[in-house]
Amino acid sequence: MKPYISIVIPVYNEEANLETLYQRLTTTMDKLGKPYEIILTDDGSRDRSATLLHELHKRRPDIIRVIEFNGNFGQHMAIMAGFERVRGQIIITMDADLQNPPEEIPKLVAAMEAGHDVVNTHRLERQDSRWRLWVSHMHNKIRTWMMPKLNMKDEGCMLRAYSRRIVDLMASTGEMTTFIPALALNYATNPTEVGVAHETRFAGESNYTLYRLIRYNFDLVTGFSVFPLQVFTLIGMAISFFSFIFVVFLFLRRLIVGPEVEGVFTLFAIMFFLVGIVLLGLGIVGEYVGRIYQEVRKRPRFVIKQVLEENAEKVGVE
After folding, report:
1. Contact between residue 307 and residue 53 where contact means Cβ atoms under 8 Å apart
2. What is the three-class DSSP state of 211?
3. Which helix (H) or strand (E) holds 17?
């Protein structure tokens, strides 16, 4: 039977969570009573995740499909690989760490069946550490300021639902770096948002370090906005204007007062400030140029080692 719901889950070093994830997810979906499939993408795990995924596929090959990457290509590429192979009309994404309870999926399905094409979510009573909560809070504020069109309360929650039309559009982009929730909103015509429960991580440790969170934010901002470039254009114009006024002031002061040594350290301070602004601006421009470079090389977004399905087992490159 053709699945009505497709659930796409990226997996990276989640061996301690997979059995519980399987039990809770299949129990929830069986109770829902709608045909479904579960696509799990192993994103180059270094533990026993790949082996466990093979075992789960053997248990229910009609429902469990496994995509195994040849290396680590990132969470969003793992989801994209699943998007390219979904067969359902409602596609749900979620993480494998069980912080987003599978029991919340019927809530998303109900919202989709009410006529929405994208169902975003925000986490209720988050169970993350204080520093993660603070970083997330600040990032949400900055993102709202820089990209007001991306109307999301909580872009870090991956438990979301999309229509097949939206997923097909996202899969067709072929972008090397992207941020799926924001990309979906670009194509959505009737999005909505619901609150979902949030739990502490069932087992293991988070794969998101501070550095990876920073990189993730760069991908979001540079992938969907030119706001940083516009800001530095305005800053450059303002600095140029005030620098011209300052030069006129120094010229007139020299004519009136004459040569003087005072103020050398002030000039050095101003110079160091301007050099810092220039270097920061070059760094931001470099982020955009780097992404252009990644796109024009036309290298594969990810390399698939094998795909485990009910009637096929294949190796490929995407």
Report:
1. no
2. helix
3. none
**d(C-alpha 119, C-alpha 159), whole Å:** 9
How many angstroms separate the CA atoms of 18 and 24, rounded? 10
- The 10s digit of each residue's pLDDT in 192-224 is 999 998 887 656 565 555 656 666 666 666 666
Centroid of chain to Cα 39: 19
| pLDDT exceeds cutoff 90 at 59 | yes
Does the pTM surpass 0.90? The reply is no
d(CA 174, CA 28): 33
The Cα 215–Cα 208 span in angstroms is 10
Residues 76 and 40: their CA atoms lie apart, in Å, by 13
Instruction: Give the span between the Cα atoms of 107 and 179, in whole angstroms.
Output: 23
HSE-up of residue 83 (Cα within 13 Å, Cβ side): 25
- Residue 14 makes CB contacts below 8 A (sequence gap 6+) with 21, 45, 47, 49, 96, 97, 204
- 30/101 Cα distance (integer angstroms): 15
| Residue keyed to tokens 């770096």 | 177
